[in-house]
Structures are given as structure tokens and as C-alpha cells.
Amino acid sequence: MIEQWQAMAGDGREFEAWDVITRHVEDLPEDEVRALIENLVGWPGRRPMPHRWWERRSRGEWAPYFLLADHRVLYGDFDTRAMDENKPYDPDAHEAFYGTSAVDDEGFFSEFNAIGTSPDLRWTVLVSAAEGNTSSGGLEVFDAETGTWETGDVQADDHYIGQGEDVAVSPDGSLVAAAGRFDQQVIAWRVPGPERLWAAGSWRTGTEKAGYSHIGFSGDGKLIVAVSSASPYDETAERHVVVADAETGDVTFTTAAVVTGRAVLDHSGTRLALIGPDGDVLVYRLPDGELVARHRTALPGTDALALSPEGDTVAVGGDGGMELLGRSTGRVLAEGTCQAMTWSPDGPRALFTSEEAATVIDGQGRVLWTRRMEDPSLLLAAFTPGGHTLLTVETYPAEITAWFLDREVRG
Fold first, then answer.
1. Which of 56, 177, 247, 254 is deepest in the core (most CB within 10 A)?
2. Structural contact between residues 66 and 48, judged by C-beta atoms closer than 8 angstroms
3. Which 8-state DSSP code applies to residue 135?
4. What is the tens place of the pLDDT at every residue in 304-358?
């Protein structure tokens, strides 16, 4: 049967073949499932998870054949993709496989700068850039449970953020925070809704014209950290780093420093780490702001970083690898430039892009995911809080895809 399925995939019926495989495997005993997984290691096509499996997985159920799938399409313009690839397309079959909420034929109408997602993958949030003087940037929130864009009925002044720069979802999936320039610098919403909680216009930090280029949550979701945009004229100019209550926007800590990358909080929000000039990685105690650790990295091009839940180890990523500093130390080599980092239950994970591929590695250098593409540097991607999944967005044909990084972990 494997030869038959591979022949179907080879003559353009890849989706049909995979649909047959996923139904066939549901009736097999576990030992035969494991054997089939081994025999399909070289499967030539995609390995998406059917909606019926996804519903069970979301309820906390487990089946060994879930390991066959390496991703879940949350939203996709399958009609356009089929036309571009000159492959057969059956709308009813795709809706039955992927779920009605995931299938669409409208695509995206914006170029997005950043994405974020909730741990359960229900919420995907995107911020877009302004288009000259004709339109402002904005926030878009996709609900994978219903297949709807939650910002469709929101008033313009509630979700237009000028030049959208960064966006994040709280670890419990209840809050969304976006950073941008011009109209509103930082705005927080509650989902579903979204209901706007506060905007950063009350922050008296001198960033009214610059706005903010980075935003993130503490591990417990109670605090956010934002970094003001860099000066286009002076890379050594100080930038404002602000820590605020996620529910109210009340500032709990602020400082001005030369920041060359992002800033991150530990789980409880009592440690703040950022990358300063000349490869210095600085760790502050909060809320008093005392500098408690200074580490030096020789990695070039450091921009991304992640902080352990206890705040005692920092992972930084740059050109050619990532490095652990603090209580745990070490360096892992990687091809390309680090684009994003997170801290998972088993340590740091990092996304690297090279000339030909995008790759996720862990703190031991093991490859958890890799994908060849024409221009990996343009990949728009983000880890879920906890790092179990990598979310990617393609604008044409439109697709939001969740790639499973812990396929050997049940549930």
C-alpha cells in the first residue's frame, strides 16, 4: 500500500493519498502504527494533522498515530495554492480534512511585521505596517476555533497602531499586546473580543515620536516589557525599556539604556535581561532595577535572547549559533542567523535562517524542525509560549501553520 500511496503523491494526488493514510492508520494496532511511521519517514509530501485528530488532541486525548503529522494548518487559501501548484482541488474534501474554520479563499490583504500566538493555538495575532500615507497599520486577531478574524468589527481607533512593529500573546492566552509607532505606541487587549484594556499614551518616557519596537510578557503573564525603537541616526543612542502591569499598563520599572536587541523577563517578572553594547548581556533585579549580573558574549550579531524561568541563565542568539550564560554555560553552533528564541521545559530553543533553510534547534544543538525555502530571511514566525510549537505565516498563498516541535511528547 505504501507504494500505491507514494505513486498517488507522485502524480499530483498528494492530498488524496495523505487523507487515505490518516484514515487507514486509525484502525491499526500500536505496533503497526509505529512500523508505518518508520516506513513513511521519506514521505514526499506534506504531513498535516486532520481536524478530527486536532479536536481530540485539543481535549488532551492521545493516539500514537498523531505522530504521523508534523503540522496543523490553522488557516489556508487552498484554492489559490492548488492553482499555483497545478494540483487537483476538492473544496469539500479539504473542508472535511482541515475543518471549515481553517479553509478560506480570501487570503491576506496586508504585509505583516510580526506575529504571536497562544499556547493552545486558538489565537493568532498579527501586526501590519502602514502603507505610505494612505492607510495605517493595524492589529488582526484570528480565532482558529471559529475561523473568524476577531478585529472585523472593532472601531478603527481601537486597533489601528500606526506602524505595527511587534505583538505578543500572554502565556494563558487571555491578553494581546502590540507595539508600534506613531498613532499608538503600545496597546493591550483582552480576547475574545478583543476588548481594549489600555494604551501607552500615559507612559511619560519621551518615546512619543519613536514608539516601541519590541514587546513581550513575563512567564506568568502579569507583566509586559517594551523597548522603544532605535534611532535611525544613532545606533548608540539610549532606548527606553519599560516594564508595566499587563492588566492596567501601570509602569513598575523603567530605565534608559543602549539596547542592541530585545529585552525579556523571567517567569515571575523579578529579572529583566537585555543585550547592551559590545556584547554585554545585562540582568537587572526588579522592581528596584539593581544590576545583578553582567555577561559577555563573543557571538556576532546578537539580537535574540531568552531567560530561564528562574532568571539565572540567559540564552542569546546571533550569527552562527547560540550561547548560554549564567548558571548554565555553553555554546551551540548553527548555520545562519538567529531570528527568534524561547525557553521550553527542556531549555532554550532558537530559530535560525540561512540562505536556503529555516531551522529550529534546542540547547544541545538537536534539530527539531527544518524547512527549505526560497528566501528564509523573509520568514514570519513565532514560538508559542513554552516553545512546543512554531507558528509560521505565508502571505501568498495565505497560510497560517503550526509546526509541532515535540512530536515524541504525548498530549
1. 177
2. no
3. B
4. 999 999 999 999 999 999 999 999 999 999 999 999 999 999 999 999 999 999 9
Q: Order of strands across the sheet with 380-383?
A: 71-76, 398-404, 389-395, 380-383
Taking only the tens place, the pLDDT of each residue in 54-83 is 999 989 899 999 999 999 999 988 887 777
Tell me what pLDDT residue 199 has.
82
Domains (range + CATH), the chain: 2-71 (no CATH), 108-259 (2.130.10.10), 268-395 (2.130.10.10)
| % of the chain at pLDDT higher than 70 | 89
Helices (H), 250-303: none
Tell me which DSSP letter residue 222 carries.
Answer: S
How many Å apart are CA 4 and CA 52, to the nearest integer? 24
Quote the strand ranges of 229-356, DSSP E.
Answer: 239-245, 251-257, 263-265, 271-275, 280-285, 290-296, 304-307, 313-326, 330-344, 347-353
